[in-house]
Amino acid sequence: MTMQLHATAERRWAAGAEVRLGPHAFLLRPPVDERTAADRSWVWREATAEVSGGRRVRLRQVALRRLGRRGAQLRDGLGVQADLLSIVAGDRGLPRLVGRHDEAGRTTLVTELPAAPSWRDGFGPGGAGGLPLDRLTAAATLAAAGALCAALAELHRHGQAHRALGPDAVLLLDRYRRAVPRDLGLAGFAPTVGEGPGIYRAPEQHRITGPGPGPDRPPGPATDVYQVAALIYHTLTGRRPGPAPNPPVRAAVAGFPAGSDGVIAVALAATPALRPGIAALSDALRTARAALAAG
Fold first, then answer.
1. Least enclosed by CB within 10 Å: which of 26, 104, 208, 261?
2. pTM, whole model, 2 decimals?
3. Helical (H) or strand (E) element with 81
4. What is the mean pLDDT of residues 216-242?
């Protein structure tokens, strides 16, 4: 069942366009993502934007033309994210909420966005030509990943998971020393088949099942564990990851400890219930970083 909404006329989002939300004007920067439902009942948009003074923010918006099930899920997901961001208030490197705007069938979430390179800009993945990283760069990668794990652990503590981690969704702060999520990804959104970023998509994101603790549990914190492990594996080795077994990291990065290699392998397990928690993965990455840095 759908309900017709009376929304004001809207323009497509495009790089260089100006979006007004209340008294504020936002200048959109590339890339701009805009997707329309097959039945044209909703439009999803997200982009990086600048406000006066060069301050950067992240905009995420759903515009409802008719109120159907999926459109309502997208709107409610942004509402969950707004509430969660108000609670965490930037803790552990999670984004800070700038504002939420609801008007004329549109819900828009505005979050702070540090002026920082992405993981792809800083570390690859895979280096030039898909080659593995050298020992010291690999150690720096693992050190930065510790902060990302801490941010995800805080998200998990609030009963949510990012589920959309990849090299473009992670920012590098403090001269590449600390990695943080660009936004909250799919936290608060109902799972859909095929969600998540390409080669970092966890197996359970290909098949959405009902809730429960079984081996086919739906996407959740274990999905984040898989995606972090996949990102680390791809970055260090230059090889695209897949559900275990994968060639060990130490085959590409000399001195990578076997114990940490084992944790990454289990984190890439096809069955979510077999994967370690995000804290255990973080500990394994910390151990590997110390071994590589010690030479």
1. 104
2. 0.92
3. helix 69-88
4. 93
